[in-house]
Amino acid sequence: xxxVQDLARVLEAAAPLAYQxxxxxAGLQCGNPQMEVRGVLIALDCTPAVVDEAIRxxxxxxxxxxxxxxxxxxxxxxxxxxxxxxxxxIRHDVALYAAHTNLDNVRHGVxxxxxxxxxxTNLRIxxxxxxxxxxxxxxxxxxxxxxxxxxxxxxxAGQIGxxxxxxxxxxxxxxxxxxxxxxxxxxxxxxxxxxxxxxVEVLLPLHLQHTAVRALQQAHPYEEVAYxxxxxxxxxxxxxxxxxxxxxxxxxxxxxxxxxxxxxxxxVVKHTAFEKPIKKVALCGGAGSFLIGKARxxxxxxxxxxDLKYHEYFQAEGRLMLCDVGxxxxxxxxxxxxxxxLADKFGSTxxxxxxxxxxxxxxxxx
Length: 366
What we know:
With about 375 residues, the chain is of the alpha/beta class. The protein has 11 helices and 15 strands. It has helices at about 5-15, 50-55, 80-90, 100-105, 110-115, 145-155, 210-220, 255-265, 290-295, 325-330, 335-345; strands at about 25-30, 40-45, 60-65, 95-100, 120-130, 135-140, 170-175, 195-205, 225-230, 235-250, 270, 280-285, 300-305, 320-325, 350-355. The chain has a 6-stranded mixed sheet. A 5-stranded mixed sheet has the order 1-4-3-2-15, with helices on both faces.
C-alpha cells in the first residue's frame, strides 16, 4: 500500500513546495509520513466537519487546498476551530496535507482549471516568476554525452514549456594532468593529457539542482566532474501568478457575466462598469487584487478573481471589467486537480473522494 509520504511525493512533483509563497504553509501538516493510505478525502478547506466526513468514509488522509495551520500555534487546547480540527485529526489518526500557493503558481494548477471552466484558449501565466531557473553546464567525453543527458533529463532538467530533452552542446578540447593517486578515465597519472570533450548545457529548475548534480555525478565517467550551476533571472513561464487567455468568440460584457454565473455556478458577480466586447480574459483563483495592474498591462478586457475590496475596483480605470466571483467560487474546482493526479498515479489502490461537506463560509440571500 502507498504511504502518506508516497502521496506527498506525487503532489509535490506536480506542485513543488519550492513554488509556494513565503507566507504560505503547504505540505504535510499532521500525520505520520509512513502511515499506509486507506482512503483520501479531497476538500478546499479542512474543518471539523470535513474530518468527520473522512472518518465516516474510512479515509485516513485529507488533502486540502487551504492549509489548516497557516500561522504558528502556541498551544493546542481546542480553543478555536483550527485547534479543534487538528485535535480531531490527531485522535482519529487522520493525516492532513495542503497544496496551496504552490498549486496556484504552477501552469497546470488552480488557474488553469478555472480557465478551462470558462472555455479560454491560448493560455499563459499572467505574472511569471523570475529567479527560479538555473543553467547547468558540464563537460563530457563524447561517448558519454547521451548517457549523462539521459540522467539529467530523468532528474528534471532540460524541460522548456512543452518541450522536453532540451540541451545544447559544443565540441571542445580538455587538458589536465592527473595527480599521482588518481585513476583517470583517460590518460596516466602525472602525465599531461589532452583530448576531445563536449560542453553540455541544460536548463534546470533551481530547486532540483541537488538532484540533478547527484544524477550527473552518477552517470559521468570522471572521478572529478566539472560543472557550473548558473542562477538565471529569466522569468519561468511555467510558474507564476494568475493566467490570461482568450474566449473563442467575443462576448458582450453582459453575456460574459452570464457565462461566469453559469460556468462557476455563482448566484452573483460583483463587477465594474464596462461596455466593450470581452475577448481577452485574465483571472486568478482566490484573492487576486494584487494582479489588477498586471491584467491591465496584459490588455485583458476582463479580470476574474475574488475578495476585491471597495477601493480596489477603482483600479479598473475604465480599461477592463473587474469581476469578483468570490474566493470559494473561483477555487471550487481545485479538488478535480487533486483527484486526477492521485487517480492517475495510484489508480484504485485506495478510496478517493471529493468531500460533500460544503465549506464556503459565505452565503447569499436574494
